[in-house]
Structures are given as structure tokens and as C-alpha cells.
């Protein structure tokens, strides 16, 4: 890999600004569906499906494109594209009337941009020190969810601040992200006439613009996982996370606030903030750990098991003094699992294939989420909150037991990862 200029400080600032905007989106979008339009749980699942479905279509091509472009400039353009669906929604709110088909269109456009952003942004993290990768990932996750928590809190003040101001703030954060990510990874001047070279870590003799070359690069990304049993099982676990954990988080949480406790946007935002504090707390502990995890795969499976157990408690709609600590613990297990999964990925994959590997990883994580969101909404509507949460909890515990019994992740040691990374 060629030596690249990379400012981790500006990268963290980008993570902060973009995730503050994402935090606003995570509350405003579902609340427009169930709180403003008062749509059914299955409609909420369909709306979340619209945001996540583009990942299935575009995240793999997004990873291949990212590997052949200068990531800082490419991400700068992508962050600006987020403003287009937000401006559309803002115009409708001011001059017309919000409708469910419009929210579906907004969700699909927003999700399409995210499908290209995720692998490019994740691959930039690979420029951090390999020996301290767990700390770098933990710091990113901390900043990510602190910023999202701020976004949740602001969105929870929807009635007093107003949705127009919140959407304008969201646009401002994405514009700021565009500026910061370019500073995080600035383009280098190739020669005296200042023609700019594109970053590429693959074979320089390939014609990367041809469809055949792109297809070869895509197959190379998949080959990393088909040839490595540990990475293959990592994908299976994150796929289960996408379907079970993300599905119930995206659809179950707003329904718990709305139907379970008859609360408003403020309660939904407070649950989101509590979950986020759990994520940040877990990753703060990780960031203070000097040595990498000795058995990251085993700890990841255990954290997955912990989440499944807590989901069953939430489905019982306990008193608030039980609910919020449980949501906090759920967030802590989720935050630990996120960091462990990304640490394993970055330490197992070479730089030259990192965007493609990240796109496959994100595909499995977010590919299951649309189906999980739709299935969760459908199940809540036809079976009820408690029954749906209980079934998802039992499935999560089953997957954890199978992982402990048969997956090579259970026996994975840090020394093995360092050998691969080296």
C-alpha cells in the first residue's frame, strides 16, 4: 500500500458530525411514520425496509468503486448527496403535506447514499495502527454514538424545536462532514501541474474502469470470506445480528415507546439515548484497554447471547426503573459486539481489499436488517409485542449456542489475527 496522508482527528470529527445527523434521522423518520401519519407496525417495518434495502443492491458495487477512488474526495461528494432527500422532505413539510409514499421515496434515496458511504468510510479506518486497532475502533464507536445520542436528544425536542429547524441542522451536519472528511484524507498532488491521482491499492496494470475488472475485484472481495472459515463465520454472526438485533431495534423500539408505554417522541428519544450511553460506556472501557482482546470471537458470541437475554425482558414492558437499566445493558452488549466484529475484520483483511471486505461485511449486517425490520413489524401487528420480543430472544440465544459449539470464532486468538495482519 502506498503511504497515505490520514488525519485520525479529522476522521473522528467527521464521524461525530455525520452521526449527529444520523441520530436526528433515526428518531425523526420512524416518528413521522408512527407518530405523525399514525401508520401500522407493518407500515413502519416497510418504511425501515425502504431505507435498508438499497444496501442489498449497492453496497457491494460501492465497495469496489471506493477501492478505485480517492476515499476522502469520494466521501466528500457522497456526504453532500445526503442533502438532496432532506431538501425534498423539507420542501414537502413547508409547502405540501407529508404522505407515506413520500417517506418511502425519502428512505430509499437516503439509504442509497448510505450504501456507498459505509464501505468507503469504514475502509479509511484501516489506516489506523494495526497493533492498536481495537482502540481506534472503540474511539470511533464512542464518538459515533455520543454524536447519535446528541441527535436523539435534539430530535426528542421535536415539539419545541420544530422539524424544519431539525432538518436544516441535519443538512448542516452533512455539509460539515463533507469538509472534514476531505481534510481527514486529502488528495496528494501527483506532479508539477498539480494533476491529482486517484488512490488505488490494487494491481496498477489492471484496467479498473472496465466492467470485467470491476467484477474481478468484487469476486476477490468475496474470496476473502469464502477462503477464510473464521471470516465466513463472522459474516454468519453479523447476518444474524442484522436480522434479529437490528430488526427489533429499528421497529421494536419505537413501538415499545408508542404502543407499549403510550409515550411520545420524547420517550422514544430517551430510550435511544439510554441505549447509546450503553454503547459509549462499553467502548470507553475498550478504549482504555492497552492490549487487544485475547479471544475476540468468543467475547463477540457472548455479547450476542447477552443481547438476546435482555430483549426478552424488554418485551415484558417492565416498569421504567427496570426498563432503562436493561436498555442500557442491551446497548453495552451491542457496542462491544460492534467493536469486536470490526476489529476482527480489519485485522484479518489486507488494505488492498479493505473497502470490498467492508462492503461484504456491511451487506451481511444491513442486508438482514430490512427483512428483520419488516418481519418484526409484521409479527408485532399479528402476534403482539411480548410474543415477538420473546421469539427473537430465543432465536438469538440459539444462534449463540450454535456459535459456541461449532464456530472457529469461539477459539480465535489475538495472536492469530496479528499474524494475518502482519
| Fraction of residues in helix | over 70%
- Major sheet description: none
Name the CATH homologous superfamily: MFS general substrate transporter like domains
Please give the domain count.
Answer: 1
Would you tell me which CATH topology applies? Growth Hormone, Chain: A
Number of helical runs? Answer: 16
Order of helices and strands: HHHHHHHHHHHHHHHH
Distance between the termini: 13 Å
Cα Rg: 21 Å
- Average pLDDT reading: 82
Give the percentage of residues in beta strands: under 5%
Number of strands: 0
Low-confidence stretches: 189-206, 418-422
Derived structural class: mainly alpha
Shape: globular
Known CATH architecture: Up-down Bundle
Return the CATH class.
Mainly Alpha
Structure, described:
With 422 residues, the chain is an all-alpha fold. The protein has a single domain (8-184, 215-421), classed as Up-down Bundle (Growth Hormone, Chain: A), CATH 1.20.1250.20. The chain is built from 16 helices and no strands. α2 (41-67) packs antiparallel against α10 (229-260). Mean pLDDT is 82; it is low at 189-206 and 418-422.
Amino acid at each position: 500500500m502506498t503511504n497515505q496522508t490520514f488525519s485520525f482527528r479529522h476522521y473522528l470529527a467527521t464521524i461525530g458530525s455525520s452521526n449527529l445527523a444520523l441520530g436526528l434521522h433515526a428518531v425523526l423518520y420512524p416518528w413521522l411514520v408512527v407518530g405523525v401519519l399514525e401508520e401500522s407496525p407493518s407500515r413502519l417495518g416497510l418504511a425501515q425496509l425502504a431505507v435498508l434495502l438499497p444496501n442489498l443492491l449497492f453496497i457491494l458495487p460501492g465497495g469496489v468503486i471506493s477501492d478505485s477512488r480517492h476515499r476522502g474526495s469520494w466521501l466528500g461528494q457522497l456526504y453532500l448527496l445526503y442533502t438532496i432527500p432532506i431538501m425534498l422532505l423539507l420542501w414537502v413539510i413547508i409547502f405540501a403535506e407529508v404522505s407515506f409514499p413520500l417517506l418511502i421515496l425519502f428512505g430509499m434515496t437516503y439509504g442509497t447514499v448510505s450504501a456507498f458511504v459505509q464501505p468507503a468510510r469504514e475502509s479509511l479506518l484501516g489506516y489506523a495502527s494495526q497493533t492498536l486497532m481495537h482502540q481506534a475502533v472503540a474511539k470511533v464507536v464512542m464518538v459515533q454514538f455520543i454524536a447519535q445520542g446528541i441527535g436523539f436528544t435534539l430530535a426528542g425536542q421535536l415539539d419545541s424545536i420544530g422539524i424544519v429547524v431539525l432538518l436544516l441542522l441535519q443538512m448542516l451536519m452533512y455539509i460539515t462532514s463533507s469538509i472534514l472528511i476531505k481534510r481527514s484524507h486529502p488528495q496528494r498532488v501527483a506532479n508539477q501541474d498539480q494533476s491529482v491521482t486517484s488512490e488505488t491499492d490494487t494491481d496498477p496494470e489492471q484496467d479498473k474502469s472496465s466492467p470485467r475488472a470491476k467484477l474481478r475485484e468484487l469476486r476477490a472481495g468475496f474470496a476473502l470470506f469464502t477462503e477464510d472459515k473464521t471470516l465466513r463465520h463472522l459474516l454468519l454472526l453479523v447476518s444474524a445480528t442484522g436480522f434479529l438485533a437490528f430488526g427489533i431495534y429499528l421497529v421494536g423500539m419505537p413501538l415499545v415507546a408508542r404502543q407499549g408505554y403510550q409515550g411520545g417522541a420524547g420517550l422514544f428519544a430517551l430510550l435511544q439515548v439510554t441505549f447509546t450511553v450503553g454503547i459509549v460506556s462499553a467502548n470507553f472501557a475498550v478504549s482504555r484497554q492497552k492490549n487487544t482482546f485475547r479471544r475476540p470471537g468468543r467475547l463477540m458470541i457472548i455479547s450476542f447471547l447477552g443481547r438476546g437475554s435482555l430483549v426478552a425482558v424488554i418485551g415484558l414492558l417492565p416498569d421504567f426503573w427496570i426498563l432503562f437499566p436493561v436498555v442500557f445493558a442491551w446497548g453495552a452488549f451491542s457496542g462491544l459486539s460492534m467493536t469486536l466484529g470490526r476489529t476482527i475484520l480489519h485485522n484479518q483483511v489486507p488494505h488492498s481489499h479493505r473497502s470490498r471486505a467492508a462492503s461484504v461485511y456491511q451487506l451481511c449486517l444491513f442486508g438482514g436488517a430490512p427483512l428483520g425490520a419488516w418481519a418484526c413489524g409484521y409479527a408485532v401487528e399479528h402476534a403482539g409485542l411480548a410474543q415477538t420480543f420473546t421469539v427473537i430472544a430465543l432465536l438469538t440465544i440459539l444462534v449463540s449456542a450454535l456459535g459456541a459449539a461449532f464456530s472457529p470464532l469461539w477459539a480465535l486468538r489475538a495472536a492469530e489475527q496479528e499474524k494475518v495482519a502482519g
